[in-house]
Amino acid sequence: MKELKPNESVNLTNGSKAKVIKELGRGGQGIVYLVELAGQKMALKWYINPPDKKFYKNLEENVAKGAPSDAFLWPEYLTVLKPKSSYGYVMKLRPQGYYEFGQYLLARVQFKSVEAMINAAMKICEGFKSLHLNGYSYQDLNDGNFFIHPETGDVLICDNDNVFPQGDKSGIMGKARYMAPEIVGGSVPDKFSDRFSLSVILFLLFYGNHPLEGARVLACPCMTESYEKKFYGSEAIFIYDEKNNTNRPVRGVHNNVLRRWMAFPAVLRETFKTEFSEECLKNPQKRKIEAEWQKVIQQLRDSLVACPVCGRETFIEDTASPKCMDCGKPFTLAGILRIGSRDILLTPNTKIYVDLDNKPDIQVINLPGDKYPVQLRNITSNKWTVETPSGKLKAIEPNMTMPVKAGLKVSISGASKGEII
Questions:
Q1: pLDDT tens for residues 327-360?
Q2: By CB distance 3.0 to 4.6 Å, which of 30, 159, 190, 330 could disulfide with 47?
Q3: Are residues 37 and 77 in contact, defined by beta-carbon separation less than 8 angstroms?
Q4: What is the DSSP string of 199-211?
Q5: How many helices (H) and strands (E) in the chain?
Q6: Burial, 95: exposed, middle or buried (Cβ in 10 Å; 0-12, 13-18, 19+)?
Q7: Which residue from 140, 131, 218, 223 is spatially nearest to 179, judged by alpha carbons?
Q8: Is the pTM for the entire model greater than 0.85?
Q9: CB burial of residue 350 (10 Å; 0-12, 13-18, 19+)
């Protein structure tokens, strides 16, 4: 393969040219260059060993269709295919402030807050929901596919050249430890195997260790191909499997999950127990779809509050006697905002997310000395309507507040109506 040099230009299929500025990095598949296109800095992935014409044709179609959502650093331009030459595609550059997911797993980068971690989980699920709804499967989902902002939890999904239509085969099977058991056994990747890989990514995000790597895997003298097929394929066992305790986390090795397993609410633990149960490991169609994962993550958000005593984030599962997981002190909830079947817990300095996205709608604030010291600030661009128990209506403009008072009903947006209890 011919490597590109600074100031060299490559022809794109839309008739324009991309000028190479410098190399940004390289991996097993190709080299990434910083390029200039129509005055804009972008990234060019140039293949070391160019895949076949089917792969090129698929890239061409993906460029034409466009990204499923803003979460994807999607191929935007394709270089002209020449005989006996390589090719590549141009995508947006990763913005400043985003770090590879692997950096978080190595503790070189940490989330600023649990809220940001939950935001990252929600954005990852939203991205793959969009992908699958658009008829694609990712086929190579692993920890190298994500750039995450540690303060906001915003996520950018990269390496999208392996995205193929559902049911079509890219030739890429995936990365070890992230492939679904059926793919390890030789099946073709699809949206169902994507969902297994998604569960692995979410488990790593929340717990910091791999869901299938416990005492049994640790005792393996050498990870040969046959052992790999056994531990991640035919005989995969979840580290917290309820029926099989032979692969439990080992103290001193799997410290992250040992420390965090009970720190997150039961709804998350139970979901992972189901997703990595023998039934779901062997029956791909029983795995959760992304929208179901989003509802689980939403439950985490709804139970995450700022402790009124120490100010740190804490999950509350027992609303009758709340206690901070960090300082250990009991406290009283200011109230609960009930939206449909959801109970969103309220304490000062807590942000409320009404929808399945990463944009907060409400800031719970403290106004010492006020008749109602805890209030809800409207941080949307919409006007709310508050209804009192007697039927009186009041408009709450953006940036204005309403009291946390039992019996008040509030219309936040079209279908989002809540009541303080």
A1: 999 999 999 999 999 999 999 999 999 999 899 9
A2: 30
A3: yes
A4: HHHHHHHHHSS-T
A5: 11, 23
A6: exposed
A7: 140
A8: yes
A9: buried
